[in-house]
Amino acid sequence: MLMNSCSSGDSSDEDGYIDEEEEEHQNFACLFCEETLKSPNDFFEHASSLHSVKILHVFSKLSFYDIVKVINYTRALKMSAEEFKSVPDIASSLSDEYLKPTMADDALLMIDFEELSQNNCASNSSISACQNESSHDSSRTSLL
Questions:
Q1: Taking the alpha carbons of 96, 24, 32, 87 in that order, is the dihedral positive or negative?
Q2: How many CB atoms lie under 10 A from the CB of residue 36?
Q3: Which of 28, 50, 95, 105 makes an SS bond possible with 43, Cβ 3.0 to 4.6 Å?
């Protein structure tokens, strides 16, 4: 978050920090079960380990609007992780009605998946890991 360097340190700075703190205390409801997680990373780990779904990998291939549709569609139909696996393939054809949240204050809709995906790749030491992670082709070979 960019802070105004010319501010007097009054409420604008404090409000910025309060907003960040509020974001950190949101609960992230799993797409596939009743579990509620405390952070996006906890949610991603939960989805991967319990449901075998790599959310960042799946969403890295979708536009912002398609991600919103997929989240709301999945929640509306109460899909299992297995059923979910085909949804990203049809994301662009989902009705715009799924742009409207199906769950009040859905913290998943507040996540910047593009930024997280880029940060995830930037933190990897291997270029090939990011290229393979964002590739649709699972047979692609590593550069290493």
A1: positive
A2: 14
A3: 28
